[in-house]
Amino acid sequence: MSYDSLLGELSAHGQGHLLTYWPELNEKERAQLVRDIGKLDLSEVNELFRRANDTSKVILEKVEDLKPIPEAHYESVPNLSNEKIEEYENLGFKEISDGKVGVLLLAGGQATRLGFGHPKGMYDVGLPSKKTLFQIQAERIVRVQQMAAEKYGTHGKITWYIMTSEHTKQPTADFFKSHSYFGLNEEDVVFFEQGTLPCFDFEGKIFLDEKHHVSSAPDGNGGLYRALKTQGVLTDIARRGIEHLHAHSVDNILIKVADPVFIGYCKSKNADCAAKVVQKSTPSEAVGVVCRVNGHYKVVEYSELTDEAAERRNADGRLTFSAGNICNHYFSADFLTKICNFESKLKLHVAKKKIPYVDQDGVRQKPSEPNGIKMEKFIFDVFEFAENFICLEVARDVEFSALKNADSVKKDCPSTAREDLLRLHRKYIREAGGVVADDINVEISPLLSYGGENIQDLVNGEVFTISPFHLKSMQEAATNGVNGKH
Fold first, then answer.
1. Calpha distance 366→422 (Å, rounded)
2. Can the peptide bond before residue 356 be classed as cis, meaning omega within 30 degrees of 0?
3. Phi, psi of 258 (to 5 degrees)
4. Taking the complete model, does pTM exceed 0.85, yes or no?
5. Is the pLDDT reported for residue 480 higher than 80?
6. Residues 6 or more apart from 240 whose CB is under 8 A from it?
7. Percent residues over pLDDT 90 in the chain
8. For all residues of the chain together, what is the average pLDDT?
9. Is 462 exposed, middle or buried (0-12, 13-18, 19+ CB in 10 A)?
């Protein structure tokens, strides 16, 4: 496209300023700018800005009819009988054995808050094994596949779909390749890239990050739906015959990847969409709550709950609005296909940010106050479109510990993630008949045990005195050396 036609196209949409510095650019820089502009559907992004602006003017949706999840759509693992858990688990194992389960991993984040300039999944929280988040989750997939095969005699493959960002895709792919996909087959690990949206000033002008580069930001975890469609993942899901997708963020070190109990629960209820939740720890805990708003399932942010609603309790003393959202979801493949066909209708969330930009004098500025907006979509905004939405409450100490902050914050940080995992593993050892003091750090390899099973012969009657200690599978011990008794 010539300069004149490009300028005409941009000017027709009020974005002609993006070519302000064209005369100063060399050929390589001009090519970069044309590529950036070529990624923009100008009519669409202007419409997105208009919608986002309209949304931000509505301070809060009128919450006139706020209700908790109905009991018929809600079960709690800690309150289920062992027989019911086993029933769901066996259903899930059967779907895994038949190759009908996939995992959607939201792994676009950089670990900048942790002072680690790489994808967050590559982070090592300091476990005895030094395993990264990616390795822990990969090995859980290996183990749960093995358990399903032992149960039903067929080794079904779980396809792992990993959503990266533009900047994390190559480092993530290289990391997996250099570690031989952590025991998974290369063809069962599929990387795809979430989209970006341009950053705007408050008047709707797209910022230049540099004279030859349009300012943009990832489109949020709700960008998953567009990426599934545009990157060919939906087609791949259909080709492989996958019917169930477990979606979660990379930063939960306790995540039960492709959890057969969750899959089986959703299968048994014929759910098209579901959320795992944990009980809110206090009325004031800053976590979104899954509930019904004006007849639709939604996540209501803590800041949107009135004090009265946050403090309300049932007759048994439990918080009425207690279903804390932890970005841990189930989707049927059919539901994903339906959603991806009208994801453009999803709500836009607006954040006023300090966005670096090139000013009218050609100088890159780093503002000290918010000067524009970034737009994103949230993965849970599809709940309201589900025809059969259900919730599964799980124990926080077993299934949720987030890694978001540096250790200096002392919450949701590497030291809390590490301690939460080691505390859970001490619990598993005690339940299997072992003796371990609270100051002894014993890590159980995911290749040995997915959720506390398969360790009784190793730990029953044993007293653990060596710390740190890494309890490995036979294969790991043979390959990597023996640590302690194992």
1. 42
2. no
3. 55, 40
4. yes
5. no
6. 99, 102, 159
7. 84
8. 93
9. middle
